[in-house]
Each structure stands twice: as C-alpha cells, then as structure tokens.
C-alpha cells in the first residue's frame, strides 16, 4: 500500500519535472522571437489594465462632464484636463477605453473558451466514432463555414437579440468549425500511433483513450488556433459593436465607442481615433504572440 | 477529370441543404410571432392573422414548409421583400454589381501589391526589408477595417479634402444603368468626368476592403516562395548560372503560384465580410449595406435570401478554385479520383 503511494508520488514528480522541461524548451523557442516576447509583454500590460481599471482610470467612464463636451485631448490645463479628450456627452475617452479593455478581453476569452471546450468534444467524438457521426458533425461545420463569419454572426445576433453576450455566442458558433476540424484531424493522426494501441491493449476505456491518452497530444495546434481566434474575436466583437449589434451604449466596448462617436469623426476625430488604436494594438500584440507560439509549438515550422 | 469534377460537386450538395436548413430555421427561430415579423404589420385582427398565416404557408407542417422552401429556391424564388414588396433575387442582382466592382478592385490591389512584396520579402529573407514587410502585413492583418476606413476619411476627405466621403459617383452625374458596373456604365455613357468621378469615389473603399487580403496574400506568397526556394530544382537553376529573374520569376514563382491562387480563392469569404463593413462606412450601395439595412429594418425575408445567395456564390467560387487547383496541380487530381 505504502509502496504504491510512494510509486505514484515518484511518477508525479517525474511528470512535473518533464512538464518543467517541456516548458523550458518551449520558452527557449518562444523567446527566440523578440516580437513574440514584445507581444506577450504588451498583452500582459493590457490584462493588468483591465484588472486595475478601477484604480488607474482617471475618471468614471459614465460620468458626463457637461462643461467639457467634445473637449480635444489636453494635458496640464486647469479645467477640462482629459488626455484623450471627451466624447459627445463629455465623458472621458481615456477612462472609457480603459474600462472597454475589460469587455474586449472578456469577449475574446469567452469565445476562445467556448470554442475550445465545445470544439474539442465535437472533434474528438467525430474522430473517435467516425462513420455517420463524423459525417453529420463535419457537414454541419462545413455549412457554418460556407457563410462569411461576420454575416453568420449578424444573422445569429438578429435571432438572439443585440448585446455583448449574444455577440460572443454568435462569434463562437462561427469559429467553432476551425476547432472541430483541427481537433478531428490531429486526433485521427494520433489515434493510429502505437501508444494508443498499447493503451487499448492495456484495457483503457473509451473516454480514457479519447481525452486522457490522445487529446493532450493534439493540443499544440489548438493552442495556436485559440490564440489567433482570441484576436479575431476581439476584432469581430468590435465590428458587431460598430454595426450596433454587439455591446449596446453606454457600455464602453471599443467598437461601440467608435459607432457612438461616428457622427463626430470630422469635428472631434480623437473620439474615433483612440478606441480604434486600442483595438489595433491589442489585436496586433496577440497576433505577434500567436506567431511566436506557432513557431515554438509546431516542430514543422521550427527553424524556417 | 470528369470524376474529379463530379466528386467536388457532390460534396456541395449536403452543404447546400445545410445552408437552406439554416436559412429556413432562421425565420422560425426569430423571437416573437413569425407572422407579425414577416408581414411587417402590427395589431392584426385574428382573421388577418389567419389569412397571412395561410399566405405565408405557416399553417403547413414544418417539413412541408421546408420542402416548399427548397423547391422555390431551386426555381429561383428567394422570397419577397416585406419592405419593397419586390422579389429578393431582383433586389440582390441590382445591388450585386456594386459589390463585385468594389471586390474586384480590392482584390486587384491586393494581388498587384501583395504578390510582388511577398516575393521580395522571401528573396530578401531575414533582412530589414523582409522584417519591415512582414511587420506591416501583420499590422494590416490585425486592422479593424471599419476604423481604418473612418481614419482614411478623416485624413483624406476631412483634413486634406482629396477624396469624397461616401457614395459611388458625384450627384452631378446621372449615369443610366446598363451593366450595373458603374465604371463601365460611365465609360459607355461618355459624359466627361463621369468615369473620373466614379474612379475617385472608389479609391478609399478599395484600399479599405483590400487591406486584409493584401496582408494575407503577402504573407502567404512569402511562405510559399520560401518553401519553393529550398527545393533542389531552384538550387540547380541557380547553379546553372541563370539570372535571378529567371530563377525567381520562372522556376520558383510558377510553383509558388499554386498556393497563392488557393489563398486568393479563399479570400472571397473575407471580401464578403469586409464588404459589409466597408459598404456601411462609405454608403456604398451594394449587398453588404443592403444586408445590414435589412437586418435593422427587420426585413427578414431579405436577410434569409441574402444569406442563401451569398453562401451559394461563395460555394461556387470555392468550387471553381478547387477545379482550377486540380488543373494546375495534377497531383491533386490523381490522389482524389
């Protein structure tokens, strides 16, 4: 009994040291790309900004300073001191953008979590059972893919009703096929390998083979896909917000900010410029990191 | 070849039924009473409600409604707009040339810039040029194009007054519609300045819609070229003492083009999604703006019809790309059929 426990502890430490070794190797390849590290650092900065919005935002994002409508960006003035200016209602743009970080990150994160969890289950099920289950799942995914993502999301939001949560659900559905396809194809490649046969011979059950034996070996491409989807989800959430189908005013979602100030774009360009810049920088940072991740995780792309 | 073509067409049939099921379900899944939503009337009397229900075919069982719907689609009946009371197909075909015109212009821009800079980056791999081009293309790829469009309007139209803010042509010209493609119609019409005005209105929308395809094409051309450049036949060509132009232009590019053409074909979906945003920003009277307008004015038959038509167009383009791919790359043809 005590022998057994000691054995499993030994296996545990061995596994954790292997994990550490893998992480070390991963970081070695990842940190070779300076741009990827910059992207990661920037993303960490954005996440910190979202977490500390209550502390670092200079003003309340919903308070309307009626004396300072459409105030251009000013620094060090006695009155109406707004670094990014104010919008049509006199609200501080900087604070609105800082609070908007939360909405965009949550939207991107939710989409990725939904897609990963549902996509992996569908992909593994399709890859394990094959036959008609596979055919039905994959044809549904093909159908979703045959309509441009933004159009599909628009139609879904029309059914569900406009709002940030519904926008997230709609975007998740349009991204799902990529995750299902990726999981399925790497699952099928892995499932014919010897270690899977060995574990089947050893008497492992269906679910053990599906999710414990095979799935961890399919994760690398999924992680890359998740990173890239994170950035496109932020873009699409903003696009839906811009079209009036995503987060609704007064929520300071970045796309919604651009939409509500669009009429001012020529007289008060800062109200449109800064939120867009925030979207671009956030998406760019994540994409830079994603490129580095792909190079570090995908052995085929290594050293090319 | 024949088997290959049949195979590819057969693959589209389940997708066609999938798309029709989605668009059929779309109207049934709308919140509230479908009759009220489709008839576009409020406070109907029960008699009027029943009459509309029968007229819209909503009193039949769902499977029969679906079969009727597909039957109508196959006969070119995509429903009638609640707003204008005109067939959806007519409205769509009237606006579609504007979208094609913009899409073709954007794609041309993306190809004539994207392919050469992609090749250049691959040839100059690892240099500052390569890094610069790849950095810029990543920025393009990450661009929220609705903001990019507004930014260009602020700068070029607002600050410098160089380009028009929106629309397809100056209101001074009343060009009669012949082909629906305004550039061609303006040329046919022959009034001085009409063509120039139409071109002038196209500059910003073309740049905005072309940005993401341009970035993708540049990146993919570069990686396709890099793959080809490490092949033996390229080394042989170089060792034979051929000029760089011949090595890159003839030997490498021809093989890299297979990947590039596929990538270009796959951009049609991106273009349609981009058209929704670009046309909204520039008030471009095409399909994208129409779909958004239909969603907002609750013209659900128009949204439904537009969804099916766009999906069918994308499916056909993908089929053509697939067949072309088989034609340029015989290896595909033989493994599949």
Topology order of chain A in helix (H) and strand (E) letters: HHHHHHHHHHHH
Overall mean pLDDT of chain A? 86
Task: Give the helix level of chain B as a range of percent.
Answer: over 70%
Number of strands of chain B: 0
- The parts of chain A where pLDDT drops under 50 for at least 5 residues are none
What amount of the residues of chain B lies in strands? under 5%
Basic shape of chain A: elongated
The fraction of residues assigned to DSSP E strands of chain A is under 5%
Summarize the biggest pleated sheet of chain B: none
Helix content of chain A: over 70%
- From the N-terminal CA to the C-terminal CA of chain A, the straight-line distance is 51 Å
End-to-end distance of chain B: 8 Å
Radius of gyration of chain A, in Å, reads 24 Å
Query: Structural class of the helices, strands and pairings of chain B?
Result: mainly alpha
Largest interface: A-B, 42 and 44 residues
- Average pLDDT, all residues of chain B: 85
Quaternary class: heterodimer
Low-confidence stretches of chain B are: none
Total helical segments of chain B: 14
- Structure class of chain A: mainly alpha
N to C succession of SSEs of chain B? HHHHHHHHHHHHHH
């Amino acid at each position: 009994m005590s022998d057994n426990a000691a054995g499993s502890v030994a296996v545990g430490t061995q596994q954790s040291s292997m994990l550490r070794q893998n992480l070390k190797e991963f970081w070695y390849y990842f940190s070779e790309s300076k741009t990827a590290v910059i992207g990661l650092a920037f993303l960490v900065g954005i996440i910190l900004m979202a977490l500390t919005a209550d502390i670092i935002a200079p003003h309340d994002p919903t308070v309307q300073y009626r004396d300072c409508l459409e105030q251009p960006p000013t620094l060090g003035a006695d009155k109406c001191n707004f670094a990014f200016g104010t919008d049509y209602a006199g609200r501080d743009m900087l604070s609105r953008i800082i609070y908007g970080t939360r909405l965009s990150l949550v939207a991107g994160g939710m989409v990725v979590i939904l897609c990963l969890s549902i996509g992996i289950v569908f992909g593994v099920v399709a890859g394990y059972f094959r036959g008609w289950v596979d055919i039905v799942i994959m044809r549904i995914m093909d159908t979703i893919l045959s309509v441009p993502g933004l159009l599909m999301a628009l139609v879904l939001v029309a059914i569900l009703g406009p709002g940030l949560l519904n926008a997230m659900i709609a975007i998740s559905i349009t991204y799902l096929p990529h995750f299902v396809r990726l999981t399925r194809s790497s699952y099928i490649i892995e499932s014919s390998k010897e270690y899977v046969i060995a574990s089947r011979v050893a008497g492992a059950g269906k679910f053990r083979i599906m999710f414990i034996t095979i799935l961890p070996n399919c994760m690398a491409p999924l992680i890359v896909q998740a990173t890239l989807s994170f950035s496109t989800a932020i873009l699409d959430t903003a696009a839906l917000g811009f079209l009036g189908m995503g987060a609704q005013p007064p929520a300071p979602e970045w796309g919604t900010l651009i939409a509500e100030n669009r009429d001012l774009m020529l007289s008060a360009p800062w109200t449109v410029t800064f939120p867009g810049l925030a979207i671009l920088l956030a998406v760019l940072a994540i994409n830079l990191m994603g490129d580095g991740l792909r190079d570090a995780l995908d052995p085929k792309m290594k050293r090319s | 070849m024949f088997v290959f073509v049949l195979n590819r067409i057969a693959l589209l049939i389940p997708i066609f039924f999938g798309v029709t099921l989605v668009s059929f379900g779309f109207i049934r899944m709308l919140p509230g009473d479908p009759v009220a939503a489709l008839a576009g009337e409020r406070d109907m009397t029960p008699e009027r409600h029943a009459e509309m229900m029968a007229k819209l075919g909503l009193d039949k069982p769902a499977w029969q409604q679906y079969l009727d719907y597909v039957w109508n689609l196959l006969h070119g009946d995509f429903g009638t707009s609640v707003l204008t009371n005109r067939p959806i197909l007519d409205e769509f075909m009237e606006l579609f040339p504007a979208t094609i015109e913009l899409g073709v212009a954007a794609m041309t821009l993306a190809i004539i810039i994207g392919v050469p800079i992609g090749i250049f980056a691959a040839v100059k791999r690892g240099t500052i040029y390569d890094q610069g081009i790849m950095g810029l293309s990543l920025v393009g790829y990450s661009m929220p194009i609705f903001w990019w469009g507004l930014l260009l309007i602020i700068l070029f139209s607002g600050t410098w007054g160089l380009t028009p803010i929106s629309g397809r042509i100056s209101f001074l010209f009343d060009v009669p519609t012949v082909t629906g493609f305004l550039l061609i119609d303006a040329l046919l019409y022959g009034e001085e300045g009409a063509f120039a005005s139409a071109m002038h209105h196209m500059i910003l929308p073309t740049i905005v819609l072309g940005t993401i395809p341009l970035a993708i094409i540049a990146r993919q051309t570069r990686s396709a070229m890099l793959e080809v450049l490490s092949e033996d036949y390229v080394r042989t060509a170089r060792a034979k003492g051929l000029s760089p132009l011949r090595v890159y232009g003839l030997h490498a590019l021809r093989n890299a083009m297979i990947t590039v053409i596929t990538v270009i074909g796959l951009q049609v979906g991106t273009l349609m999604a981009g058209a929704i945003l670009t046309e909204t920003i520039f008030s471009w009277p095409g399909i994208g703006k129409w779909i958004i307008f239909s969603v907002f004015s609750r013209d659900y038959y128009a949204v439904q019809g537009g969804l099916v038509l766009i999906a069918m167009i994308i499916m056909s383009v993908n089929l053509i790309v697939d067949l072309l791919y088989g034609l340029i790359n015989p290896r595909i043809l033989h493994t599949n059929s």
